[in-house]
């Protein structure tokens, strides 16, 4: 069973609710992050994404230097535990149309995050591995020497 812990990113970008959106946006740009997790008392309180920046700050002509991220973040985002199946996480992302999924521990502290890009990379990597294995098995069944794949051979 593939669980989200196996592919989640643990290099988190976290901020507090009182940090201004300009500082958070600078942090996002510096780390090439599409979202920042917002905590209150070390627990996940929200998520601030590029979409939040565009739809809740810029399009409303708010001054990002004066508006706290807590006022424009997505509150109480859907989050999962690290033992949640990857397939269940994909269903959540598709159903709710968001791009980032926080992973929390039993105390609701953020421990990871995954993006739709991460899901895509995982899917492509898994498919490539399956294709490589199928091609290898097919060649073995047709009589190819398995050691030719690693540079050796039984044959003289």
Structure description:
The protein has a single domain (4-120), classed as Roll (CBS-domain). The protein has 156 residues and is of the alpha/beta class. Helix 1 links the parallel strand 1 (14-16) and strand 2 (35-40). It has helices at 21-31, 50-58, 69-72, 86-96, 116-141, and strands spanning 14-16, 35-40, 43-49, 74-75, 80-81, 100-104, 110-115. The protein is elongated, with a radius of gyration of 22 Å.
The CATH superfamily is CBS-domain
Strands of the biggest beta sheet: in what spatial order? 1-2-3-4
Strand content: 15-25%
Q: What's the number of extended β-strand segments?
A: 7
The CATH topology turns out to be CBS-domain
Q: Rg, please?
A: 22 Å
Number of domains: 1
CA-CA gap between termini: 43 Å
